[in-house]
Amino acid sequence: MSPATALDRLAGRVREEGSPLAVKEGTGTDGPGFDDGVFGQLAAAGPRTSARAAEYAFVVEAVREGYLCHYGRSRILDEPDADLALLAGDLFYAIGIRGLAELDDLESTGILSDLIRVAAELQAAGRTELTETLWLGQIVALSCGKDDAHQEAVAALEAGRQGAEGVLREWSIETAAANRMGRAFDLAQSAIDSGPSNF
Predict the structure, then answer these.
(1) Number of CB atoms found within 10 A of residue 129's CB
(2) ∠ CA(98), CA(100), CA(105), 5° rounding?
(3) Three-class SS string for the chain?
(4) Deepest in the core among 43, 48, 76, 137, taking most CB within 10 A?
């Protein structure tokens, strides 16, 4: 398996679940595959994750899909109503966390749990513009490992301290460069810099 198949694998899980969830027609097993998820590709590119790249990409894209069902628009579901989207989001979160448990990676479990929690707090506080920088930082941490500087930057972002977003982004840039994450990081950073989207 390749990290690039993470969204197609997720679509397959939805098909296994069956009604009331439905995958968009003409994708996956019915046609062309889904576009690569940039955060799954980033998750697979680091030294902590490269040995099991496809599994980490799947976990991250499941969590990303859960997040989008709650706060954006699903990439793989066929236009669920608001209530169904929330339920689907919970399902995707559970798929991601279950996959992480199978990887037996406690550090990444903590990183993704913090990501889900802090992103929800930022959304509730109307600070939605900060969530993608949080995603970038947390997935770099999952790929490369976190340190005190990362934890302090996330705590500052959560607390609403001035300049915290820039500090976390700079940590992400420096850590990705030190670990030669190259194209995967550039694609993720370009995606968040291009504005709100469903990736």
Answers:
(1) 11
(2) 140
(3) CCHHHHHHHHHHHHHHHCCCCCECCCCHHHCCCCCCCHHHHHHHCCCCCHHHHHHHHHHHHHHHHHHHHHHCCCCCECCCCHHHHHHHHHHHHHHHHHHHHHHCCHHHHHHHHHHHHHHHHHHHCCCHHHHHHHHHHHHHHHHHCCCHHHHHHHHHHHHCCCCHHHHHHHHHHHHHHHCCCHHHHHHHHHHHHCCCCCC
(4) 43
Backbone CA torsion sign across 192, 197, 198, 199:
negative
Which pLDDT tens digit goes with each residue over 144-195? 999 999 999 999 999 999 999 999 999 999 999 999 999 999 999 998 887 6
Q: Which tokens go with 31?
A: 């046609």
